[in-house]
Amino acid sequence: MYPKKFEDLITAFQQLPGVGHKTAERYAFEVMNWTKEKQEEFLEGLKVLSTGIETCRICGNLSDGDLCPICLDETRDTSLICVVQSPKDIAAVESIQEYKGVYHVLNGVIDTSKGILPEDLRLSSLLQRVEAGNIKEVILALDPTVEGETTSLYIETLLKDKTQVTRPAYGIPIGGHLDYTDSLTLLRAFQGRK
To answer: H or E stretch including 81?
Structure first.
C-alpha cells in the first residue's frame, strides 16, 4: 500500500518496545511532516548511538567518555555502591536526590530461561571493586522480580564476609490499600517496618 522506503520507516519504528504497526505508521507520518531541519536534528540524535555514547569503565553507566559524571564527582561517597540492573535505574535513584554514593550497573539479571547466567553480568568487576576498595556497604537495588531476587541472593553470597550488603525496603505504596496488597509485599512491609 505504501512505497517500500516508507514501509521500511514504519518497520524501523516498530522495533521500539511497545510500538505496534499503527503507532509506527503514525510516527512515520509525523516524521515525514517535519521540516528538513527537524529531520536532520533527529537523525543527528540517532547517530550518537554509534559514535558518542560509551559506558563508564568503573561503574558501567552511560558516559560521554571514559568515566561517567557520577564517577568523576569527587563529592560522592565511594565507600557506598548501589548495584542496579541498567543505567536507567540510576536515573530513578538519582531522582530522590538523597543517595550520595556511587553505582555499579550489572547490565541485566540472572535469568536461566533466557540463558543469562552470572558470568554474563558485570559481577566480576563488582567483586574487584569491593576487594580493591574500602567499601562499607553495597546496596542491591534490583527489581523485586524472581530474576531480581535470584540475582540479589547470588550477590549476597558472593559478597558474604567482604562488606555489608543491604536492600531497599519493600512495602505498601503510598495510597495503596492493604486488601489489594499481595502477601509477599505485605510480608516484606511487616519485616521492614520502622
So the answer is: strand 77-84
Assess if CATH 3.40.1360.10 describes domain 74-166.
yes
pLDDT tens for 110-145 read 999 999 999 999 999 999 999 987 999 999 999 888
Q: What residue ranges do the domains of the chain occupy?
A: 4-51, 74-166
pLDDT in tens, 64-103: 889 999 999 999 999 999 999 999 999 999 998 899 999 9
* Angstrom distances, CA of residue 138 to CA of 30, 40, 54, 89: 46, 44, 24, 16
* Predicted model pTM: 0.77
Q: Which residues contact 60 (CB under 8 A, 6 or more apart)?
A: 87, 103, 104, 105, 106, 107, 122, 125
Q: 129: which 3 cell numbers?
A: 571493586
8-state DSSP, 176:
-
